[in-house]
Write a structure and sequence with these properties.
heterotetramer, A mainly alpha, B alpha+beta, C mainly alpha, D mainly alpha, A: 3 helices, 77% helix, 0% strand, B: alpha+beta, 4-stranded mixed sheet, globular, membrane (chain C), EC 7.1.1.- (chain C), cell membrane (chain C)
Chain lengths: 102, 540, 516, 623
């Protein structure tokens, strides 16, 4: 079980780092990367559970595969949107994306 | 010959039909619109009159009841309990009339017709005006006739929307604020009402019907069911006990009180009872006179009706426990309204506060829980309806001529418009409770009823009629007596179309003042039966 | 159950709607590439519409088939793909709702979307299809994985849809915000799911229940963690306050039809997912019981209350109609959550799904109608502010009247769909004695009068700047008319649809899944 | 012939004038002179009928006749309306109809030039009919109804010249002050209703209850009821402290002052007490109160009358003080005395007012200091007025003497102090009447005043009334108690007392003599007192500052209270409402401030709130 708990802790740490990045980083690209970090934390969780979990099963690993691919797609779209945005603003600073408000 | 017609439905639906027809007419033809509107206001009025003629006080209105299921919504799919096969939520289309609603129906008929006539003052957008006006009437008639809680609520809400537009489009300077204030304030009222109704439906609006393979529980807002379930808990015997508890089909005292107080608030706002009255001042001052005729003449009475029909008949124990509270509230209404009316500088505000004062008398009548007092309450409602309708009719005529209702700018009108001033004086005397006019009977009966149980409080309340004399004379003499400002010289006195409703209302006020039995006999059956029930319920 | 079955033809038949949609998607992408520039892309719009309708037709056929007597299982459900996908009435009804709503939206947007605003109109149309596909997958998945896939399919496509107004700066900004919040939300949901999987060792929700029934007491802390993580994620997806801040921005930035799509379909799909997971894991008699369940339900009710309050109060001062509708969407999301939060608190409250679906349908109609009117009006006035509506009654009385009806329905005034939807939900709430929640619902409703009647005031009591008549397009007119009529019909005779739902629907069979 | 033949038609008596009223209001402006005649004829008809009734009742002992109908029936309760003909009501019928008819006749001349003459006659007709209704009504409720109606008519007629601000003010005052009294009466009525066995309100039952089953109503309650009813009487009959309205009511046309504010309506208060006398008799406290209030009012008003210069106001105060006499009589238990004085007073006071009217009509002023020497120019007026003054001053053998004598006798054997007070008041009465008469009619005429005798329609009523004022006293003298027997067969015989007769006659003559010395001979300087004690004179002339006192005590505080409540209503009650509204929209603004466009802020708020949620909800379980 200790194995599991250490993996879980690692995943939790990763998740928090990602979250922290999303919340604080000014560079939009870093923000997107941080999201990826959070998703990866999830993958770690899933795989750890599927190996050392109470009822180990294969499903977790399959799940993680799906997650990875989806994350990729999401990142792609995110970057694409960011490029469009950059065309408009000539900046990737999140703080400046505040025309929509109130 | 009318016996086989669904009279009540006709009464409710005729104005709706009229509204649709008005919508169909070309908006330029103001006369067509006006005449159609008046016709479709008259139809329900005439039907009500026929009802009045045909109604036998001894028997009650059972014969006219219309009852059919509107919605029946299954609440579960499969049997989860040995004895209960199915649960249904049932909403009925249930109209009925009795001695309590009939006088108010008549009032509605009269005042609405007069207001339709008085709407000649309306200068713009007749089409919209009249369609909304008729829609409003549907709502009002519905409220007085509906006997299903949900149906009642729907009609109650239906009155809100047209009023909002009528105030907001055709009102005076501050109309939009007043309209919104009206909507929100009354909305809160009906919210409280709906919550209380739903509690009632969910906890004892059920009737158990023996169906195939067990009991079918029907939940619904049928007034009679709820009343009988409330008044004899033996009704629960139909459903075995653990079931009722499993479903929370029981109304413990706390819940009863919640429901009761919610109802009190809901209708208290409409009446209005003391702290909840500010909205109606705005309406009185900002709305166009014909609409105020309806509002002050009828809509406030919906509150009274609700108080009696629901708060009182459903929860007599609670009401009995709170008689003191309500009586004191009534006295506060009377004196507060009266004293404030004495210092207003704007005639419409004087009338608004006097309405508050008169509604206080109604509260006293209700609080008495005596037959005399209750009849007094209804009587007072009717008479106040007529009187304030008359007064606001005149306000309309005066404003049309002088473009002001500020007491300081008016005076001496008796010289230039003697007829209007005469009727105004009559209305004023009626509202200060002069014997021989309707106001006196209502006040006297209410006081008489209340006096039996609490002498001191009532005695204090009676002081109100002194202040009534003060504010009525102060304002009306200010308008009609004294010297005439030169800009008002040579005004035309009332045209026929104005004089007609004035005379009608005045005549009715006098009739009710001289020959009250015409109404009181109607109410006999309505009340005495219920009071017996109540007394048996409360153990003598 | 570990041995995966292969996809049989029969299964394929049962998957027909989904397949149709995917085929149409691919087809239209190709067509969009091949068609020469000069051809008006409305063609693609019409084809999209066709695709949606065909799929809808299939759904109807399947429903009759599944519920019909000739099916193998009397339960009226059909389990596919190793229990990861399930055909039942909950799913089907929602599928119908989603398809119908999308069809309305696409139809209404035909002719109103301007080229200079959305340069590549083709995308705007055909990307709706995968989005709806995702929503449908979410509606009838029985497995965390498929649920998640559906969710992402929907989300990612809607990111693109939001960004469709390439030329406008705010559109792409909205898209970016949507991506970030959506991404984080997905991450939360997933993280929560991962714990759920860790405790139960399966991703299949129905198996989960039986496992949880035995083991829930050992892992209380973990359960809290997983459920609250999921709640956080879903709260963002559902735009429940205080997770709603993105919604107004995104709606404002997106093309109006897309905003409508997000408000109705995306939200509905997310709700489908939430109902699935929570209902399955919470079913009494097996599944999660006791303290944890109580707390989760309480948390849900609190969120619902917060959403209603914030959504309504926030809209009070809102001058931009799109943001206003977004906020009203927040409030309505709160209302839609109430049936779930009163789930199984009382043996009688089985009607929660019919309450939910009924209000969802009503909400769909009134929202789409309102958004369509907004599209038309803002196209005229050039901005989306309240003042654009001023004097509308004089310019276009019928539109104004229709809008009034829709707004009354949003405000929950009789006699409209919104009114009855709220009434049923209220009744359910009162039945389980959650008076405080009912009270909040009622009070916020009243406050919302101020919001919606503010709009009505603009239309009737103010004189507008423009006095020319309103430039209305035929499809938009039809959509507005249909939505208005539907709203009224739902109010006057709600019986048909309700009766129908109740006839075919049954919680234990259709919402909760028993297998293995 | 059946000797209730006319009595059964007594309800016609009020009906005639009512029909006249209806016709006049309906026709309105159409008929000018004819309108006046309609009113007069109607009143004449009722006069004739009531004389028939009287004749019928005088011939042999006719039984009392009464007739009721249910007005409102609620459950077991019945509210009844009905009329009854007794000797008492017959007497009142005759008095009212007679004076009413004469006033109608008189007004033909007096109001000739007024363009609203038909309205005037309509009002008068309405008043007459409701006054007759009041007289005939057989139970307290009906009585109260007509009681209010006469009040309104008085209000309308006082304010008849509505363009004069004073008239407007006077009318308002008259109505409101009497309304205070009505309030008392109404509450007394309600009390009585709930305490009377069987909720009966008719006078017969009332009489029986107090006569036979004494103790049916406890003494405390009886006293309370009696006092409340008395408040009503005080209001109507202008007794202290509610007398303030009556002098102002003189703003109305003079015939009205004669009819309403001298002969009939103001006497209704006395009549009320007579009607409910059983209640008063049952409570000594009530009796004493009545007596004291009456006596005090008598002397109090008389003193004020001394210092007034407006001819009508002097008469008004004299009315107040004479009504005080009647109350005094009741207080000392002499119903006969009260009714007798009411009877005679009706005639001579009406006479005096009509005479004053005739004077005013010709000299167009009411200030006696601007008159003088009119005796030569207006012979009939002067003579009749003189007779009236003698009657009022209680000079034998004029009617006033006998009735006053009856009262004084009763007062003496009940309560000597009251007797003394009454005697002094009588002296003042004679004094101010002398002043009035001599200033107006004696002395040399003012130049520029071409006064001339009024037309015959005005003088004939004067003559008739003068005759009555002279002879009507003989129906009840110490030597034959006929009236007393007729009215109250079981009533107490009032015994002759030579002393009283001498004293009252003496003070009357003394008063007249001093008046003569002062205002004709001039042996006593007119302002003898005003030089010595100017303060006293002004105090009296300003009516003891009662009006000012009331203004400070009641009017101001009420206005203040109203203003305060108005602010309260605006700022507190409505303020709360507004506050809630603003609070809500403030929250709305807060929300939009939170949506500042920073996506990361959104995420942060979300994170924080979920943490709070977890801590709040899950936390409960773990800690």
């Amino acid at each position: 079980m200790s194995m599991l708990s250490s993996y879980l802790t690692l995943a939790a740490v990763l998740f928090c780092i990602g979250l922290y990045g999303v919340l604080t980083k000014r560079n939009a690209i870093i923000v997107l990367l941080s999201i990826e970090l959070m998703l990866n934390a999830v993958n770690l969780n899933l795989i750890a559970f599927s190996k050392y979990g109470v009822q180990p099963s294969l499903a977790g690993q399959i799940f993680s595969l799906f997650t990875i691919s989806v994350a990729a797609a999401e990142a792609a779209v995110g970057i694409a949107v960011l490029i469009v945005l950059y065309r408009g603003r000539a900046s990737v600073n999140v703080d400046e994306f505040d025309e929509l408000r109130g | 010959m009318l016996d086989d017609l669904p009279v009540l439905s006709l009464i409710v639906l005729a104005p709706l039909l009229g509204a649709l027809i008005v919508l169909a007419l070309p908006s330029a033809r103001s006369n067509w619109l006006r005449i159609t509107a008046i016709i479709f206001t008259l139809i329900p009025f005439i039907l009500t009159l026929w009802l009045f003629a045909d109604y036998q006080p001894a028997v009650g209105g059972g014969a006219y009841t219309e009852h059919s299921t509107w919605l029946s919504i299954p609440l579960n799919q499969e049997q989860f309990n040995a004895s209960v096969t199915s649960l249904k939520l049932v909403f009925d289309y249930h109209l009925a009339v009795d001695g309590i609603s009939l006088p108010l129906l008549l009032l509605t008929g009269v005042v609405s017709t007069m207001s339709a006539l008085a709407s000649v003052h309306i200068r713009k957008r007749w089409k919209t005006y009249y369609s909304l006006f008729l829609l409003l009437l549907t709502g009002i008639y519905g409220v007085f006739l509906a006997r299903d809680l949900v149906l009642f609520f729907i009609f109650f809400e239906v009155t809100l929307i047209p009023m909002f537009f009528l105030i907001g489009i055709w009102g005076y300077y501050g109309r939009e604020k007043a309209a919104t204030r009206f909507l929100i304030y009354n909305g809160l009222g009906s919210a409280a009402m709906l919550l209380s109704f739903l509690i009632l439906i969910a906890t004892l609006g059920f009737s158990a019907v023996e169906g195939a393979g067990g009991v079918n529980l029907l939940f619904g807002g049928n007034y009679d069911t709820i009343l009988s379930n409330l008044s004899n808990p033996a009704a629960y015997a139909n459903v075995d006990n653990d079931l009722t508890h499993q479903f929370g089909l029981y109304l413990n005292d706390q819940t009863k009180w919640t429901a009761f107080v919610l109802l009190l608030i809901a209708f208290g706002i409409k009446v209005p009872i003391f702290p909840f009255h500010t909205w109606m001042l705005r309406v009185h001052t900002e709305a166009p006179p014909p609409v105020v005729m309806i509002h002050s003449g009828i809509l406030l009475k919906m509150g009274v009706y609700g108080l009696i029909r629901f708060a009182m008949f459903l929860f007599p124990e609670q009401l009995h426990a709170w008689t003191g509270v309500i009586a004191v509230l009534g006295v506060i209404n009377i004196l507060y309204g009266a004293i404030l009316a004495c210092v207003q500088t704007e005639f419409k505000l004087v009338l608004a506060y006097s309405s508050i004062s008169h509604m206080g008398i109604v509260l006293l009548g209700i609080a008495s829980l005596e037959e005399v007092g209750l009849q007094g309450a209804i009587y007072q409602s009717v008479s106040h309806g007529l009187i304030s309708a008359l007064l606001f009719l005149i306000v309309g005529s005066i404003y049309e001529r002088t473009n002001t209702t500020q007491l300081s700018e008016l005076g001496g009108l008796a010289r230039s418009v003697p007829f209007i001033s005469g009727v105004l004086l009559l209305g004023g005397l009626a509202s200060l409770g002069l014997p021989g006019l309707s106001g006196f009977v209502g006040e006297f009966l209410s006081f008489l009823g209340m006096f039996g149980s609490m002498k001191i409080v009532t005695a204090i309340g009676v002081l109100g009629i002194l202040f009534a004399a003060v504010y009525v004379l102060r304002s009306i003499l200010n308008i009609t007596y004294g010297s005439l400002p030169e800009q008002y010289v040579g005004m035309k006195d009332a045209r026929f179309i104005e004089a007609l409703p004035m005379i009608t209302l005045a005549a009715l006020i006098i009739l009710l003042g001289v020959y009250p039995s015409i109404l009181t006999d109607l109410m006999q059956h309505g009340f005495s039966g219920f009071l017996e029930q109540i007394h048996t319920r409360m153990g003598g | 159950m570990d041995a995966f079955q292969t996809l049989t033809w029969e299964d394929a038949w049962y998957l027909a709607p989904e397949i149709v949609l995917s085929c149409f998607t691919i087809l239209l992408i190709a067509l969009d590439l091949l068609l020469p520039k000069r051809v008006n892309r409305n063609v693609i719009g019409w084809l999209t519409l066709a695709g949606l309708l065909v799929a809808g037709a299939f759904v109807v056929i399947l429903m009759t088939a599944v519920n019909g007597p000739e099916t193998d299982s009397a339960s009226g459900t059909r389990v596919l793909l190793g229990g990861s996908y399930q055909l039942d009435d909950f799913g089907n009804l929602l599928k119908l709702a989603f398809l119908g709503a999308s069809a309305f939206i696409v139809f209404s947007s035909l002719g109103t979307v301007r080229d200079e605003d959305v340069p590549i109109k083709g995308e705007l149309y055909y990307l709706v299809l995968p989005a709806v596909l995702g929503a449908m997958v979410m509606a009838s998945s029985a497995d965390l994985i498929t649920l998640f896939i559906g969710l992402e399919l929907l989300s990612i496509t809607s990111y693109i849809l939001v960004a469709a107004r390439k030329s406008s700066r705010i559109s792409s900004e909205a898209a970016f915000k949507y991506v970030v919040t959506g991404g984080v939300a997905s991450a939360f949901v997933l993280y929560g799911m991962s714990f759920l999987y860790g405790i139960t060792g399966t991703t299949n929700v129905s198996l989960m229940r039986s496992v949880l029934a035995s083991t829930s007491d050992q892992f209380e802390a973990l359960l809290y963690v997983s459920f609250f993580l999921m709640i956080a994620g879903f709260a963002v997806k559902l735009a429940l306050a205080p997770f709603h801040a993105w919604a107004s921005d995104v709606y404002q930035g997106a093309p109006t039809p897309v905003a409508a799509f997000l408000a109705v379909v995306a939200k509905g799909a997310a709700f489908a997912m939430v109902y699935r997971i929570f209902a399955n894991t919470f079913t009494s008699g097996g599944g999660l019981d006791g303290a944890v369940r109580e707390d989760i339900l309480l948390a849900l009710s609190v969120l619902a209350a917060a959403a209603m309050i914030v959504g309504t109060v926030g809209a009070l001062r809102q001058r931009n109609v799109k943001r206003l509708l977004a906020l009203s969407g927040v409030a309505n999301a709160g209302i839609l959550l109430i049936p779930l939060s009163t789930l199984f608190a009382n043996p009688m409250h089985e009607s929660l799904v019919s309450e939910f679906i009924y209000f969802l349908v009503a909400y769909a109609f009134m929202n789409i109608g309102a958004f369509t009117v907004l599209t038309i009006v803002s196209r005229d006035s050039g901005n989306e502010s309240l003042s654009g509506f001023s004097g509308l009654y004089h310019r276009a009385p019928w539109t104004a009247i229709a809008m009034t009806v829709l707004l009354c329905s949003l405000a929950g005034l009789p006699v409209t769909g919104g009114f009855f939807g709220k009434l049923f939900i209220l009744f359910g709430t009162v039945q389980v004695h959650k008076y405080w929640l009912a009270a909040i619902l009622l009070v916020t409703t009243v406050i919302s009068y101020a919001v919606y009647f503010g709009l009505i005031r603009q239309m009737y009591m103010r004189s507008g700047s423009l006095d020319s008549g309103l430039r209305m397009t035929v499809p938009a007119a039809i959509v507005i008319g249909l939505c208005t009529l539907a709203t009224l019909a739902l109010g006057f005779l709600p019986m048909p649809i309700l009766g129908w739902i109740n006839d075919i629907f049954s919680v234990p069979v259709d919402l909760v899944m028993f297998q293995g | 012939m059946d000797n209730t033949f006319f009595a059964e038609y007594a309800w016609l008596v009020p009906l005639f004038p009512f029909i006249a009223f209806a016709v006049l209001t309906a026709m309105g402006k159409g008929l000018k002179k004819t309108g006046a005649w309609i009113g007069t004829i109607a009143s004449f008809l009722s006069l004739v009928l009531s004389l028939c009734i009287a004749g019928e009742r005088l011939s042999g002992n006719a039984p009392d006749y009464g007739n009721q109908m249910d007005w409102i029936t609620i459950g077991k309760l019945k509210l009844v309306a009905g009329f009854e003909v007794t000797n008492l009501s017959t007497l009142m019928l005759v008095v009212v109809t007679l004076v009413a008819f004469l006033v109608n006749l008189y007004s033909q001349g007096y109001m000739k030039k007024d363009e609203r003459i038909s309205t005037f006659f309509a009002y008068v007709a309405l008043f007459t009919s409701s006054m007759l209704g009041l007289v005939l009504s057989d139970n307290l409720l009906t009585f109260y109804i007509f009681w209010e109606l006469v009040g309104v008519c008085s209000f309308l007629l006082v304010g008849f010249w509505y363009q004069k601000p004073e008239a407007k003010a006077a009318a308002k005052k008259a109505f409101i002050v009497t309304r205070i009294g009505d309030l008392g009466l109404l509450i007394g009525l309600l009390l009585l209703f709930w305490y009377m066995p069987g909720h009966a309100l008719d006078f017969t039952t009332l009489h029986n209850v107090y006569d036979t089953q004494s103790g049916a109503i406890s003494t405390g309650i009886t006293t309370l009821i009696a006092l409340l009813i008395f408040v009503g009487a005080v209001g109507k009959s202008g007794q202290f402290p509610l007398h303030v309205w009556l002098p102002d009511a003189m703003e109305g046309p003079t015939p009205i002052s004669a009819l309403i504010h001298a002969a009939t309506m103001v006497a209704a208060g006395v009549f009320l007490v007579v009607r409910t006398f059983d209640i008063f008799e049952a409570s000594q406290v009530a009796m004493n109160t009545v007596a004291i209030v009456g006596a005090f009012t008598a002397i109090f008003a008389a003193t004020i009358g001394l210092a007034q210069n407006d001819i009508k106001r002097i008469l008004a105060y004299s009315t107040v003080s004479q009504l005080g006499y009647m109350m005094l009589a009741l207080g000392v238990g002499s119903v006969t005395g009260a009714m007798f004085h009411l009877f005679t007073h009706a005639f001579f006071k009406a006479l005096l007012f009509l005479g004053a009217g005739s004077v005013i009509h010709s000299v167009h002023t009411q200030d006696i200091r601007e008159m003088g020497g009119l005796g030569r120019k207006m012979k009939i007026t002067a003579w009749t007025f003189g007779l009236g003054s003698l009657a009022l001053s209680g000079i034998p053998p004029f009617s006033g003497f006998w009735s006053k004598d009856a009262i004084l006798t009763a007062a003496l054997d009940k309560q000597p102090i009251l007797f003394v007070v009454a005697v002094i008041a009588a002296f003042f009465t004679a004094l101010y009447m002398a002043r009035l008469f001599f200033l107006v009619f004696a002395g040399k005429p003012r130049e520029g005043q071409h006064a001339k005798e009024s037309s015959s329609v005005m003088t004939i009523p004067l003559i008739v009334l003068a005759v009555l004022a002279t002879v009507s006293g003989f129906v009840e003298t110490p030597f034959n108690g006929w009236l007393g027997h007729w009215l109250f067969p079981e009533g107490a015989e009032h015994d002759a007392s030579g002393l009283v007769m001498v004293v009252s006659a003496a003070v009357g003559l003394l008063g007249l003599y001093i008046g003569w010395l002062t205002f004709v001979k001039g042996t006593i300087r007119r302002n003898a007192i005003s030089d010595r004690a100017p303060g006293l004179v002004t105090l009296v002339a300003r009516k003891y500052y009662i009006d000012e006192l009331y203004h400070v005590l009641f009017v101001r505080p009420l206005q203040g209270l109203g203003k305060v409540l108005d602010l309260f209503d605006d700022y507190v009650i409505d303020g709360v409402v507004r506050l809630t509204g603003h609070g809500a929209s403030a929250l709305g603004r807060l929300n939009s401030r939170l949506q500042g466009g920073q996506v990361q802020t959104y995420a942060l708020t979300a994170l924080i709130s979920i943490v709070i949620l977890v801590v709040a909800i899950a936390g409960r379980r773990f800690w």
